[in-house]
Amino acid sequence: MQNNRCNARLDCNKTCQLHWNGASYPATIKNLSIVAMDVHFDDSPPEVKIGDECVIYFYDDQKTHPDGFNYHVTRIGTSDIAVSILDRHKYS
Predict the structure, then answer these.
(1) Measured distance CA(60)–CA(9) in Å, rounded
(2) Can you tell me the distance from the alpha carbon of 80 to that of 15, in angstroms, rounded to the nearest whole number?
(3) CA 62, CA 47: separation in Å to the nearest integer?
(4) pLDDT tens, 16-61?
(5) What confidence tier does 2 reach under pLDDT thresholds 50, 70, 90?
(6) What is the CA radius of gyration of the chain?
(7) What is the pLDDT at residue 23?
(8) What is the dihedral of CA 41, 19, 8, 3, to 10 degrees?
(9) What long-range pairs does 27-35 form, CB within 8 A, spacing at least 24?
(10) Beta bridge partners of 47
C-alpha cells in the first residue's frame, strides 16, 4: 500500500492525558508526525467531533508534563482519534 502522507510518521507508545470539555482522559499516543498524531483510549474515548479543540499533556517520569499542546480533532475511530497541532499551550 502506498503512503501518501506529506510527513513521516513514527511509531510511539507514550502515555498522555487529553483534556477536552472540562474533563481529562488518559490515553496513549500510537504514532506521531511533526504536525499530527493518533491517540488511543483503553476506556471509552471522549465524545469529540471533527474540528473540536483539545489540549494534550505528555507524561514525564510518571508525572504530567506542565507543557501541553492545543490540537484539533481530524479523524475519529472506535477507540482512537487523530489530532493535528494548533499551537503550544502552557499548563497553569
Answers:
(1) 22
(2) 14
(3) 26
(4) 889 899 999 999 888 877 778 889 999 888 999 999 999 888 877 6
(5) very low
(6) 13
(7) 92
(8) 50
(9) 27/56, 29/58, 30/80, 33/5, 33/7, 33/8, 33/9, 34/7, 35/7, 35/84, 35/85
(10) none
Q: What is the 3-state secondary structure (H, E, C) of the chain?
A: CCCCCCCCCEEEEEEEEEEECCEEEEEEEEEECCCEEEEECCCCCCCCCCCCEEEEEEEECCEEEEEEEEEEEEEECCCEEEEEEEEEEECC
Tell me the β-bridge partners of 69: 56, 88
Residue with cell 493518533: 38
Nearest Cα to 60, choosing from 91, 22, 21, 20?
Answer: 91
